[in-house]
Amino acid sequence: MTLRLDALGVVRDGRALVRDLSLDVGSGQIVGLVGPNGSGKSTALRCVYRALAPTTGTVWLHDRELTTYTRRDSARHIAALTQESGSELDFTVAEIVALGRSPHLRGNQALGPRETELCHRAMAQLDVLHLADRGVLTLSGGERQRVLAARALVQEPDVLVLDEPTNHLDIRHQIDLLTLLRRSGLTVVIVLHDLNLAAAVCDRVGVLADGALVAAGTPGEVLTPALVRTVFGVEATVVPHPLTGHPQLLYSLGAPA
Ligand SMILES: Nc1ncnc2c1ncn2[C@@H]1O[C@H](COP(=O)(O)OP(=O)(O)OP(=O)(O)O)[C@@H](O)[C@H]1O
């Protein structure tokens, strides 16, 4: 198994933020985590990219406990695009993207021709090549998000962890990024709020509520009106996408006052 969360628990200030969470992510699979605000999605992901040590349970990477990898080694395997991915450095876009190569380089070793080409390609794929010489602090939220996605790609991980990677993106760039993930062959764990995007991109979806996994399976198995009502407190009509067959959720606003 590429990635396995085994009975993860995270307790902070006496409160369980994640409870007994087990999830397998096979090679090349895209697994989504969905759930209401505060249900523990980001906390669970943070255990995978080692921003947080779980209180109980184990993360396994390629059948080895994650904690037995050096930080540098795990960064060669796992790249993260998260809410806390730093872009506060006053660097150019090209410099930020090149930082993705850090786990593979020694000291101040310069990028070779292959790595320069890799950075170029990732910037083109994320549509930020034209921004290469811009200071990252001058970018819009969506532009910055695409730069950080390019940085994660040049890390050449086998596991990519993404926390709400589409939240600043316009619809075209949302679709481009998710299509890129689908074609990448990477093993992906992705937190998404948009259940329709989750249904379109994920092979499997895990639903968190109050820190616990309450459902897991294919989008068709999991994203039912009953589940959406119970977990999100929302009435949804589920219809198959007319072209792809993926479940799509339709919502109605409450009646006007
Ligand atoms: N360091 C911390 N100490 C105490 N509580 C925390 C800490 N970090 C997160 N929490 C709480 O843990 C709960 C889960 O947070 P988390 O960020 O994992 O939720 P989430 O499902 O990603 O939410 P959202 O959809 O709003 O991003 C929240 O109630 C949050 O306030």
Automatic annotation (TrEMBL):
Signal peptide: none
GO molecular function, one term: ATP hydrolysis activity
Domain ABC transporter: 3-235
Keywords, comma-separated and alphabetical: ATP-binding, Nucleotide-binding, Transport
A Pfam family matched in the record: ABC_tran
Domain of life (superkingdom): Bacteria
Protein name: Abc transporter atp-binding protein
Source organism: Streptomyces xiamenensis
Highest classification ranks of the organism: Bacteria, Bacillati, Actinomycetota, Actinomycetes, Kitasatosporales
